[in-house]
Amino acid sequence: MPDQNLIHPILSVKFLSKVFQSGGQPLTVLKDINFNVTRGSSVAIVGPSGSGKTTLLGLCAGLDEPTSGSVTLNDRDLGKLNENERAELRNLNVGFVFQNSQLIPTLTALENIIVPLELRGELDSFTQAQRLIENVGLGERANHYPIQLSGGEQQRVALARAFINDPKILFVDEPTGNLDRDNGQHVTDLLFSLNKASGTTLILVTHDQEIAARTERILRIDDGQLVDNEC
Predict the structure, then answer these.
(1) Helix (H, G, I), strand (E, B) or coil at 41
(2) How far apart are CA 140 and CA 156, in angstroms?
(3) Would you say 163 and 198 are in contact if contact means Cβ atoms under 8 Å apart?
(4) Which 3 state secondary structure label does DSSP give 18?
(5) What is the pTM of this model?
(6) Domain residue spans in the chain?
(7) Class in CATH terms, 4-230
(8) 77-105 burial by CB neighbour count: b if 16+ within 10 A, else e?
(9) Rounded to whole angstroms, how far apart are CA atoms 112 and 200?
(10) Residues 32-70 pLDDT 10s
(11) Of 55-64, 124-133, 191-200, 217-226, which range is least confident?
């Protein structure tokens, strides 16, 4: 019997292109990108600065709309959904970690982690958040505000927040870009540890070849085109 994961990948990108207007002229950022991602796998997207990596990640997550082509996420064609439907799909299926932690400054570390579950109306959010903040080694910092945390600690809170709703797929954009080597290594180890424990599909944009090598597959983007698809 065929592998169902191959028949129904969690992410399917077909002939994806994105064109922006720059100074009245069209600027092609992505051109005819095609790939599938199987459930539970890990994929790194690498390439030079300005090659379109972050744009591609945003399109895959439904944060932006393509000029042409399609993205199917967890069997839903994003192009057929309105913004509210895409937001609901993300809330139920997707986790995010960005280069900047994007924590809410007026909430404590623990409250930041709880936010995705509160948006879903889940009542037992405190217990899950407490477990996750302990898992990332910040149990004693739970009641601290982001300004009271180091950059590495903020990113660890962001990791806990990303996993709080048990996402089916996690989109990560340069998670160690603003961290020194030691903090970056710690955040990376936590990311892969949490991801392995949860069985989440991981899509990771990184300029760090050592981080990319820890994934099962590498997609190389150059000048808006997919130039290599390593398995």
Answers:
(1) coil
(2) 13
(3) yes
(4) strand
(5) 0.90
(6) 4-230
(7) alpha beta
(8) ebeeeeeeebeebbeebbbbbbbebebee
(9) 21
(10) 999 999 999 999 999 988 889 999 999 999 999 999 999
(11) 124-133
